[in-house]
Structure formats: structure tokens, C-alpha cells
Design brief:
Rossmann fold, globular, alpha/beta, 5 helices, 6-stranded mixed beta sheet, 6 strands
Length: 150
């Protein structure tokens, strides 16, 4: 089992590393660069070429059944769920075969609304302590479930 982190804009890299270390689990940070490599021997940094979705493509090609992926990118999450990986958003929300279709539809709807109103501002509330706490609890539960086989 590997824990993959879509690292470019991930606000919970430190929290994920803490949990991965506790479980002695390999963690892979995938980014376009600008991320300081961890000294932790369980954490590997993969730097992909510049360009849209290069980190997402790398993760989608490597994530498999039994792995856990942390990403806020819904299309990437859909690919990982289809491959059998467990997916967790940084706010602690699990994306599963049961809810990924709705998440994709909501994403597309919001993109349409933003394109129809170019003056629409903001993306919601800021990421806070409650989100970090929810993520830590959810990641812990997900890793335990992965060890048990689902």
C-alpha cells in the first residue's frame, strides 16, 4: 500500500506524513516542484514536468487497488476510484464509487456557473483547523480500513 499525495496545493502534507509515519507506510508526494523534499525515509518526492495535470497523470498511472490518494482534484479522484484506490480530499471527505459521479457533476456545474458569470468571486470558506482535524481522523480510518482490505 502506498499513500499518494497530489502535493502542489495540498494543505495537509505534514498531517499526512505524520499518519503515514505512524503506520510505517510509504508516502509519495507528487508535484511540479517547489516542494521541499522530506528527510523522512518513508517519504518520496516525485517531481513531474511543468504543465497542466502532469502530477495528476502521474498519480493516475501509479495508484492502484489498496492505495490511498489525497487530492482535491475531482477528475483525478475519479480515475483513482476507478482503479480501486481509496481517495480522500484534504478536508477529510472520502470520494468513493458511490459519490464520485455526484462530485464530478457538481464540479462541472460549478465550472459552468463560473464561466457564465465572470465576476463571480471566491471559492468558499478558508481551510481551517477543523478541516485539518477532520482530515487526520478520516485518513487514520481509511488507512486502517486499507490494511484490513477495504
Amino acid at each position: 500500500m502506498t499513500l499518494y499525495i497530489d502535493a502542489d496545493a495540498c494543505p495537509v502534507k505534514t498531517e499526512a506524513e505524520t499518519v503515514a509515519t505512524r503506520h510505517r507506510l510509504r508516502m509519495v508526494l507528487v508535484s511540479n516542484g517547489g516542494i521541499r523534499p522530506s528527510a523522512n525515509p518513508l517519504v518520496e518526492s516525485i517531481f513531474v514536468s511543468e504543465g497542466p495535470d502532469e502530477a495528476d497523470k502521474w498519480i493516475a498511472c501509479h495508484a492502484a487497488a489498496g492505495d490511498v490518494v489525497v487530492t482535491a482534484d475531482i477528475p483525478l479522484a475519479a480515475k483513482c476510484v476507478a482503479a480501486g484506490a481509496m481517495v480522500l480530499k484534504p478536508n477529510g471527505e472520502a470520494l468513493t464509487p458511490a459519490n464520485i459521479g455526484m462530485a464530478l457533476a457538481t464540479r462541472d456545474l460549478m465550472a459552468d456557473l463560473r464561466s457564465a458569470d465572470p465576476f463571480r468571486q471566491g471559492s468558499g470558506r478558508p481551510f481551517g483547523k477543523t478541516d485539518r482535524s477532520r482530515f487526520l481522523e478520516a485518513l487514520e480510518r481509511m488507512l486502517r480500513a486499507a490494511v484490513r482490505g477495504g
